[in-house]
């Protein structure tokens, strides 16, 4: 394929938009209901750490679709993880 | 930061490993239980399309961590989507 740089970026931004959009309802539902019982702490920690590393990787290779998508998803995932940790510590009391 | 190319790749592979690993339990549970009632068809279609575009983006910019992570996640997401579509069409009969 013979794509120009801005066409390549458009593909990356479409990918970023779709995967971030697909993640939003989870975040909104967790905030609204504060019901994190269905969310696995272990799996969510792995996911959040992974997204954080994708963000670092994106910053190093200087690819903006990767940086923007993972910065947003990392912020959302971290806030859900914080809710989950508060939820878990409450139930331990 | 002054990182060598292979160190940058290691960060990308760690990111790929973590986010793919975090996605596996969803796939395994969906296969085992065949219960896709909690999975939103619309959101899952967006996610699968997004991962497919990340794969294309990774192939174009030739970054192997992106290619491997998204090829595996795309295959898993597509198989869950296929189960969901079969599940949905069964319930319509």
TrEMBL record, chains A, B:
InterPro entries: PQ-loop_rpt (IPR006603), SemiSWEET (IPR047662). It is found in: Membrane. Its main location: membrane. This is Glutathione synthetase. Keywords: Membrane, Transmembrane, Transmembrane helix. It is a multi-pass membrane protein. Pfam families: PQ-loop. It comes from the Bacteria. One of its GO terms (cellular component) is membrane. The chain crosses the membrane at residues 6-24, 36-60, 66-83. GO terms for molecular function: sugar transmembrane transporter activity.
């Amino acid at each position: 394929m013979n794509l120009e740089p801005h066409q390549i970026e458009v593909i990356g931004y479409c990918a970023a938009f779709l995967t971030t959009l697909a993640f939003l309802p989870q975040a909104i539902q967790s905030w609204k209901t504060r019901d994190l019982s269905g969310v696995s702490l272990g799996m969510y920690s792995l996911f959040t750490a992974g997204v954080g590393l994708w963000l670092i990787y994106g910053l190093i290779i200087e690819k903006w679709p990767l940086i923007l998508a993972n910065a947003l998803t990392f912020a959302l995932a971290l806030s859900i993880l914080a809710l989950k940790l508060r939820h878990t510590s409450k139930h331990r009391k």
